[in-house]
Amino acid sequence: MKNIYIICCMAALAVISSSCSQQLQRRYDQRHGTSSSSRDDSDRSYDSDYRSNSGTYKRDYDRVLNDSPRNDSQNAGSPGTADYNQQLIAQYQEMDKLGEVVLYELDNLENRYNVLINEYRTAKSAQKGVLADQLDRISADQLVLYRAYTNIYRNGKTNWVSVKRDVENDLRSVRRVADR
Question: Where are the compositionally biased (Polar residues) regions (predicted)?
Fold first, then answer.
């Protein structure tokens, strides 16, 4: 009875270790660019250069291309294509330019805030009310610009047109420019 129990435990451990090693291999394949959907080891070639101590798996791209022909009707704007990547790079550059404009406006507001704080320190009580209102307005504008800046990078990739319009409207409101 004890021998049967030991044999069953050994068999269970063998099944678990086999299952774990397959899962680890799939995870390794995913992280290192080989396909996890293919369980066939013929898709991978083992680079066993005798001069290097570290052999690595390499994906056999010739075999992959022959096994699954590329879909030529693929949209040029779909992820992974060169056109899509160029559009994304252009969008990121545009996001960065708008982000720089927001940072420039924040810098201007901070300089204006510092000037008003210095004036507030030396102002008479009649002027302090006006200066306090201006300081409050600058603080509110800074908050609007901080939110606009984070919106650029948080939501810009997924909905750039809307984010750009919102940020430009925020910039106009901070600059106190009316729509033409």
Answer: 71-82
Residue 107 has, within 13 A of its CA and on its CB side, a CA count of: 6
- Within 10 A of 38 (CB to CB), how many other CB atoms are there? 14
Give residue limits of the domains in the chain. 1-35+57-67, 82-175
> In which element (H, E) is residue 56 found?
strand 56-59
**pTM for the whole structure:** 0.54
Long-range (24+ apart) CB contacts under 8 A made by 58-62 are 59/33, 59/34, 59/35
What is the residue-averaged pLDDT of the chain?
77
Per DSSP, the three-state class of 59 is: strand
